[in-house]
Design brief:
By secondary structure, the chain is α/β, with parallel strands linked by helices. About 45% of the residues lie in helices and about 15% in strands. It folds into two domains: about 240 residues, PtsI, HPr-binding domain (Enzyme I, Chain A, domain 2); about 250 residues, Phosphoenolpyruvate-binding domains (TIM Barrel). Helix 12 links the parallel strand 10 and strand 11.
């Protein structure tokens, strides 16, 4: 008799397969193999890069493409390669690879910046990929029948190496909807249901499971009617190609290299330039000069000479401190001095940044103000913008927009729209603030669903307010790159999706 196990939604889809245990190993045996160590390393680097490139062709857009791109950059990083080379003779090539990647992973985990700490997982994944290439393991894991993996840990590299035609789903613990392996599974069309460790141990092995990643449930020994429902689900599904034909898909980038990669992958412009990441290597507490900023923004904009480029003003505060836009320590920084609030505390820095953007003298450019909550902030920011751009003709004046990231802004969208040229909805923040669910806390992942009716209602209100004035609405963030969420956003009338590439 069928029974249902309830978990949390991970990646959408509904498929049936036999349950098998998957044990992830982060380290291959460090056995010295015959052959020249440096030649073997060069061959492994080439093979790993080729595998990543092939995988990139399987995904159309979204944060999963950015993950793969970052890993390819790691394989070429001169500092990493130098460290590996320096210890090959002493440790052997396998141990040298592990030592170097673990060293940099530990450095990332010690940082306060959450985004950089999350990159440590990519280092572990690159380690696994290189060790497998050195061991000469097959690129694809073959299954004789459709299977559902029951795993305490699954790395993106392991998922990518599996035969997707026979991978019916994954039951996983220790991960959230925004973890890299779940993002990649979403892109590859593999359903994922998330469980806590105790619940995962209750899943029987060697039996047929129906995995419903959209609802976050697993049916043990599904009957014929339940199995038939999976076929109906496939028939009614949407794919990325059809979405790209229905809406403008732009890129979220934080560097010139990412902008170039996005152009190569067919992005229709830049929907969000994270300017704070352009200057992370700057030393000292001084803000980048107008000249430095102008050069950086022009280099990014030149990647898309005929398409829109949206440049967000420095989004500091919370988990993204900047030395030149610092705020006092707060009990709850996510709800404190951040975004436009912090910018308005430093009007000189805000004025310089807008000056650098306006100097591009290009009407394709959009200026985006982060984290607004009320009309007063928008009016003050608009005043600074208008003063800076006062002498510019309309055909070279950038557009002025604000981010809708908190419920207050969405509820006031009909008022805010009178002061701006466009809206950009930050889906990740809007979801976490609406549902009181920390976007970075796996424990609250079940609550952080961008398809929650309350979130969709706020987005619908924002779109209606903008369209009533003939103005554009984009949505950016990880959620915008999910096929199921993107389809819902398009139905609500969103004009543009800005996603990682």
């Amino acid at each position: 008799m069928s029974r249902v196990l309830t978990g949390r939604p991970g990646a959408p889809g509904m498929r049936v397969g036999r349950s098998v245990r998957h044990d992830s190993s982060l380290r291959a045996a460090h056995v010295q193999s015959a052959g020249d160590s440096r030649a073997r390393l060069a061959s492994a680097l080439q093979r790993a890069d080729a595998d990543l490139e092939q995988l990139q062709h399987r995904v159309a857009f979204g944060d999963e493409a950015a993950i793969l791109g970052f890993q390819r950059e790691l394989l070429r990083d001169p500092e990493l390669l130098t460290r590996i080379d320096a210890s090959i003779d002493r440790l052997g090539v396998e141990a040298a690879v592990s030592e170097a990647l673990e060293h940099y992973g530990a450095l990332l985990l010690s940082l306060d910046d959450l985004i950089l700490r999350e990159r440590a997982a990519d280092l572990r994944d690159v380690e696994q990929r290189l060790l497998r290439a050195l061991a000469g393991e097959a690129a694809a894991v073959k299954f004789d029948e459709p299977v559902v993996l029951v795993a305490q840990q699954l790395l993106p590299s392991e998922l990518a190496a599996m035969d997707g035609t026979m991978l019916a789903g994954v039951c996983l613990t220790g991960a959230g909807p925004s973890s890299h392996v779940v993002i990649l599974a979403r892109a590859l069309g593999v359903p994922v249901v998330l469980f806590d460790a105790a619940a995962l141990r209750e899943i029987p092995l060697g039996v047929r499971l129906l995995v419903d990643g959209l609802r976050g449930s697993v049916v043990v020994d599904p009957n014929d009617a339940q199995t038939a429902a999976t076929n109906e689900s496939k028939a009614s599904g949407v794919d990325r190609t059809s979405l790209q034909q229905r809406v403008r898909v732009t890129a979220v980038v934080g560097s010139v290299a990412e902008a170039q990669a996005a152009r190569a992958r067919g992005a229709a412009g830049i929907g969000l330039l994270r300017t704070e990441f352009l200057f992370v290597d700057a030393r000292g507490a001084a803000a980048p000069s107008v000249a430095e900023q102008r050069a950086a923004y022009r280099a990014v904009a030149e990647c898309f000479p005929e398409q829109p480029v949206t440049i967000r003003l420095f989004d500091a505060g919370g988990d993204k401190p900047l030395p030149y836009l610092s705020a006092e320590n707060e009990t709850n920084p996510a709800l404190g001095m951040r975004g436009v609030r912090l910018l308005l505390e430093h009007p000189g820095i805000m004025r310089d940044q807008i000056t650098a953007i306006a100097a591009l003298a290009d009407a394709r450019i959009r200026v985006l103000v982060p984290m607004v909550t009320d009309v007063g902030e928008v009016v003050r920011a608009r005043e600074i913008f208008d003063v800076v751009c006062g002498g510019l003709a309309d055909h070279v004046r950038p557009k002025f927009g604000v981010m809708i990231e908190v419920p207050a802004a969405a509820l006031m969208a009909d008022v805010l729209i009178e002061h701006v040229d466009f809206f950009s909805i930050g889906a990740n923040d809007l979801t976490q603030f609406t549902l009181a669910a920390d976007r970075d806390g796996a424990r609250y992942a079940a609550y952080g669903d961008a398809l929650h009716p309350a979130v969709l209602k706020l987005i619908e209100m924002t779109v209606s307010a903008a369209h009533a004035h003939g103005k554009l609405v984009s949505v950016c963030g990880e959620a915008a790159g999910r096929v199921d969420v993107a389809a819902a956003l398009i139905e609500l009338g969103v004009d543009e999706l800005a996603v990682g590439m």
